[in-house]
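user: Please supply your own:

assistant:
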Amino acid sequence: MRTVLFFLIGILLGVVLFKSEVASWFRIYEMFQFDSFHMYGIIGSAVLFGALVMFGLKKFRVESILDGQQIHIKSKDKGWKRYLTGGILFGLGWGLAGACPGPMFVLLGAGFLPILCVVIGSLLGTYCLLRCVPRKAPSLMVGF
């Protein structure tokens, strides 16, 4: 049941990303050239929505619809260096590839096969990170 629910949510997200042109290389290029507010509006809306949802989850002690247990959100570790490093790497990858992780899979699902090189590269990079720094995600290392 969980897999089906997550699969349906993923399909819905893919449709929304594709229809709102978030996966469009031209929209991303416009954003980096500061020619259009379109992407900044979408990203800003997502940040605001995410902040409101996180506030609501913490304040109202919401229970999961999957197992009925209370959702507990851990506090982030203090520090800025890793966030700066991660942001720079993410931004460089986004700028070079023309797509961030969500739209990469949307473009692949829409039939833009050249993005497959980027998807394979990102999966390989993720695999290498998990092999080099296994303490970051030990549960994802199962089977590797």
In short: The two ends are 26 Å apart (CA to CA). Helices lie at 2-19, 25-32, 38-60, 81-97, 101-109, 115-132. Residues 42 and 48 are 10 Å apart (CA to CA). Residues 2-141 form one domain.
